[in-house]
């Protein structure tokens, strides 16, 4: 494709993207497809002859786009907000168009240095002190794995360059809660801690936050038994109920054992840009690492996960390889982000943040997030006042967890039927395409999370959602 051909095809594509965003509300939130439907629309064999770009765009429109779940839809309340602000999409396009190779400072000095500036701008916007040093990882899952690896190496006096874990006599332990995201367990398993050494620390039954006295007891028990408490992963805004583990208390307990503290704030870390919400993260300054995803509520298109560490020298020591073909004339003066994570090749991700911060501006982003907090509080109030409905977890940020209990099922002996009821009314809404919600387990019973925060969601959409939920759950046919 020549630059001229690209110019015209790209204009068409951008028009198509803008049109889709403009009329997103007219489409169903969830596509009406079964597994295999989309793949079945493709030829089994790869194409051998080229076609015009317009034919490809036509196929994108006909075959592929109808198979996406419209997470930019204002009636999308599932999982978490996965906002892709159009300003950040421009940065993503710019990143692709520049075609940069991020394998060393020399392979694209701008890629490295804009990332340095962006992580520092974001640090300031989050109210973090300048002892935090940042990098953009692809996802919070990767950041968590990196935290596990650096914690493992700190706890074993860098055994990776000698015997590895095989030579470490004492097992290393990981501490988290049942509220933690599945990536925490995955990271612990991949980093070699072993499932037997993952401790699920008790939570407060109301808030679902980690109990630091229970953490202290678990760590002491392990230490007394000759095991090494290596890392605590604190959830700052858990996926299910937005529980906030008490970071300050956890830091104090972990310090006794010289254990690493990683704060997983994948979704909720965006709230750090709201000064009035920072008390939820009290004690953060004592942690060793933090990650949060601008690619969720904040609105930067996937993938953009910020990771901050207190001790970058330790991180680099664990992650650095420095093969001869990548040796740089820039020496120690330049940051080599390949030594801050797992992949060698990196995209120019910081451009997404740069575009978003320049074009939307932080005040607009903050206003939108405050609108979402208000909307979530309002939604919870509505459900608190409705007979048969219950808000089953504290509303810390923008997620409201609810359950509807018909009077006939209002007895613990009907637990299984209540679960069926919950799943049935959510399924009805989700298959209708009018809205999308994610059910989730809480204390062994299904409930429904309403995750508010899509860029285009206004109060009127919540009013519509309440109608839909009531019609589905309170229907006499249930
Ligand atoms: C608390 C928490 N941690 C980690 C993750 C995983 O994020 P990612 O998809 O960036 O790996 C999520 C995703 O929802 C999350 O809510």
Can you tell me about this structure?
This protein has 478 residues and is of the alpha/beta class. It has helices at 3-22, 53-64, 86-98, 109-125, 140-155, 182-190, 212-224, 247-256, 294-298, 312-319, 350-359, 362-384, 415-432, 459-473, and strands spanning 76-77, 133-137, 172-176, 198-200, 228-235, 260-264, 289-292, 305-309, 389-391, 399-404, 436-442, 445-451. The strands form two sheets. It has a seven-stranded mixed β-sheet with strand order 2-8-7-6-5-3-4, sandwiched between helices. Strands 1-11-12-10-9 form a five-stranded mixed β-sheet. Helix 7 runs parallel beside helix 8 (247-256), helix 12 runs parallel beside helix 14 and helix 13 (415-432) crosses helix 14 (459-473).
Topology:
Blueprint: H1 3-22, H2 53-64, E1 76-77, H3 86-98, H4 109-125, E2 133-137, H5 140-155, E3 172-176, H6 182-190, E4 198-200, H7 212-224, E5 228-235, H8 247-256, E6 260-264, E7 289-292, H9 294-298, E8 305-309, H10 312-319, H11 350-359, H12 362-384, E9 389-391, E10 399-404, H13 415-432, E11 436-442, E12 445-451, H14 459-473
Helix pairs in contact: 3-11, 4-11, 5-6, 5-10, 7-8, 12-14, 13-14
This protein binds pyridoxal-5'-phosphate.
Pyridoxal-5'-phosphate is lined by residues 80, 139-141, 181, 183, 235, 238-239, 264, 266-267, 293, 305.
């Amino acid at each position: 494709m020549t630059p001229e051909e690209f110019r015209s095809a790209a204009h068409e594509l951008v028009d198509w993207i803008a049109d889709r965003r403009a009329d997103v509300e007219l489409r169903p939130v969830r596509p009406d497809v079964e597994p295999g439907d989309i793949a079945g629309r493709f030829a089994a064999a790869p194409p051998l002859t080229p076609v015009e770009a317009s034919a490809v765009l036509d196929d994108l429109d006909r075959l592929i786009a109808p198979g996406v779940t419209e997470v930019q839809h204002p009636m999308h309340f599932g999982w978490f907000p996965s906002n892709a602000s159009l300003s950040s999409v421009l940065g993503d396009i710019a990143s692709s168009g520049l075609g940069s190779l991020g394998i060393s400072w020399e392979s694209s000095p701008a890629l490295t240095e804009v990332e340095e500036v962006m992580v520092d701008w974001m640090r300031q916007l989050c109210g973090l002190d300048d002892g935090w040093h940042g990098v953009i990882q692809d996802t919070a899952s990767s950041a968590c794995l990196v935290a596990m690896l650096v914690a493992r190496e700190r706890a074993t006096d860098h055994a990776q360059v000698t015997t590895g874990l095989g030579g470490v006599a004492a097992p290393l332990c990981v501490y988290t809660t049942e509220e933690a995201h599945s990536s925490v367990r995955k990271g612990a398993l991949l980093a070699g801690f072993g499932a037997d050494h993952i401790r699920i620390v008790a939570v407060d039954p109301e808030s679902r936050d980690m109990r630091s006295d229970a953490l202290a007891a678990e760590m002491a028990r392990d230490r007394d038994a000759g095991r090494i408490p290596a890392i605590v992963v604190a959830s700052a805004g858990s996926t299910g109920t937005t529980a906030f583990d008490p970071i300050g208390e956890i830091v104090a307990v972990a310090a006794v054992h010289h254990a690493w503290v990683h704060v997983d704030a994948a979704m909720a870390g965006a709230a750090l840009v709201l000064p009035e919400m920072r008390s939820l993260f009290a004690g953060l300054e004592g942690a060793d690492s933090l990650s949060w995803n601008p690619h969720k509520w904040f609105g930067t298109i996937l993938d953009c996960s910020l990771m901050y560490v207190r001790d970058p020298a330790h991180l680099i020591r664990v992650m650095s390889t420095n093969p001869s073909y990548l040796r740089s004339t820039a020496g120690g003066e330049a940051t080599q982000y390949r030594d801050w994570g797992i992949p060698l090749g990196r995209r120019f991700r910081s451009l997404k943040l740069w575009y978003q911060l320049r074009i939307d501006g932080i005040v607009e982003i903050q206003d939108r997030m405050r609108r979402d907090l208000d909307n979530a509080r309002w939604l919870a109030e509505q459900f608190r006042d409705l007979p048969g409905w219950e808000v089953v977890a504290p509303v810390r940020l923008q997620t409201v967890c609810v359950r509807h209990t018909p009077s006939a099922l209002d007895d613990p002996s009907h637990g299984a039927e209540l679960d069926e009821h919950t799943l049935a009314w959510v399924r009805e809404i989700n298959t209708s395409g009018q809205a999308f919600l994610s059910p989730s387990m809480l204390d062994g019973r299904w409930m429904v999370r309403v995750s508010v925060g899509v860029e285009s969601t206004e109060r009127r959409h919540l009013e519509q959602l309440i109608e839909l939920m009531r019609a589905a759950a309170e229907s006499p046919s249930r």
